[in-house]
Amino acid sequence: MNFLFRPLLVVGVGCAARRLEEEMRDLVNAWSIPFITSSMARGVVPDSSDLCANVARSLALSKSDLVIVIGSSLNWQLHFAEPPKWSKDAKFILFDHSISSRDKKVACLWDECSIGEAINLLSKEKFACPATWLEELANKVSLAKEKLAAKLRNDVFPLNFGTTLRVIRDEISKMEQAPVVVSEGANTMDQARILLEPVDHPRRRIDAGAWGTMGIGPGSAIAAAVTEKVPVIAVEGDSAFGFSGMEIETACRYNLPITFIIFNNGGIYGGDRRSCDSIAAATQGLKNAGYPEDPSPTSFVPNAQYDLLATAFGGKGVSVKNAEELKAALRASIDSGITTLINVSIDPQAGVESGAVHAFNAPKTE
User: Fold this and answer.
1) CA–CA dist 43, 61 (Å, integer)
2) Half-sphere exposure at residue 14, Cβ-oriented, CA atoms within 13 angstroms
3) Does domain 7-144 have CATH number 3.40.50.720?
4) Tens digits of residue pLDDT in 176-230
5) pTM of this prediction?
């Protein structure tokens, strides 16, 4: 086959689950095809590949017109294959037994053999990827990486998500064994997907995935530490950690080599960050309902000491407020192999709110 389209390969979590990294790498190399990965398929094909377009995702989606999806459905993470994220002319070829689709965009739904067999068949085909398409994506990747590097170059105080994750990324890069990194939370997980890279080993990233379920972090970290026999780093938003944080007892009881890093910004999206008008409206709403003393519904206890949870169960707890303290605490935890919880104080204004949650409790208007 000799196509002159703008092709894109989407590597889904099914490829990681089925351990198809060898087959997928052969396919990418045989076709020289640009690819993006789902969050938990990172490393199936290395991020460090010149063909990885993860950091040029918006361009890749909007301009590709032949999309080969392996191991994933066209779910919300892939914007349901709809414009404006995708080109209205894009055609999709899906490879996964678990997928069914009646969408007219789907040109082919492979169900004749296993995914591994299908990939091997594809690898034997000749596929010409246009050099102009590869160059356009490569330029976008280069610019995006330069922009991100400039943004993260200097430490910020109070800490924000960028500086904190950059410190974590740099320490991970020094580790002899690639750790399993678990992340969950709103800003925490979203930013970790972008900043904790490159990922060159499969099944080394776990997050809320397509279901977006909060509370999976501590349990996933424990399972990874038991089954993978490598260090585990759990990057947790304080709200997400609250769903199942008592699993720290399990980790301490078994003395698992897990480093829990809690991004403590005082609440959901960062504590009480409402405007004066929103505060006044919410205060009046609570007063009308008979609860005038209730705190903001998105705020947690100020200056919460999550590190004491680890200490209480025999692990190690550390509280940090700047980049140097975080670097030292993370390095000590990795070297010791002791269950450790690092409580990181984050600027409450650093995150980005999703939805108008800070307007809750305002009185209803007629």
Assistant:
1) 20
2) 18
3) no
4) 999 999 999 989 999 999 999 999 999 999 999 888 889 999 999 999 999 998 9
5) 0.88
